[in-house]
Amino acid sequence: DVLVNNAGVHLVAPVAEVPMESFHQVFDTNVYGTMRMIQAVIPHMMERKEGTIVNVGSITALAPGPWAGAYSASKAALHALSDTLRGGTKKFWHKCHDSCSRRHKVKYRKQFCRQV
């Protein structure tokens, strides 16, 4: 079984001016929607001791733009959840992936630091 969490919404605005309802909508889709799907499938995957979960992240979690605060924060939360899920399910199976993998994060950080 494979679950690909690819739903996401963006919000372009200065973070200080984002209405809380809009912030909630971004997190409801990008973070809570992902968790709803994970919680729906993980009992079955754990029972079978197999399955793969792919959470589509974004490099903006590491390098947020000035008008992407809500989106960047939601994707950073998604990266943290992916890391936590990967560690928390190790004794059952080890297949939770973040589309912005550690290798890409390190490569991006190196490139970004060279440019600054």
Automatic annotation (TrEMBL):
<dbReference type="InterPro" id="IPR036291">
    <property type="entry name" value="NAD(P)-bd_dom_sf"/>
</dbReference>
<dbReference type="GO" id="GO:0005783">
    <property type="term" value="C:endoplasmic reticulum"/>
</dbReference>
<dbReference type="GO" id="GO:0016491">
    <property type="term" value="F:oxidoreductase activity"/>
</dbReference>
<dbReference type="InterPro" id="IPR002347">
    <property type="entry name" value="SDR_fam"/>
</dbReference>
<protein>
    <submittedName>
        <fullName>Uncharacterized protein</fullName>
    </submittedName>
</protein>
<dbReference type="InterPro" id="IPR020904">
    <property type="entry name" value="Sc_DH/Rdtase_CS"/>
</dbReference>
<comment type="similarity">
    <text>Belongs to the short-chain dehydrogenases/reductases (SDR) family.</text>
</comment>
<dbReference type="Pfam" id="PF00106">
    <property type="entry name" value="adh_short"/>
</dbReference>
<keyword id="KW-0560">Oxidoreductase</keyword>
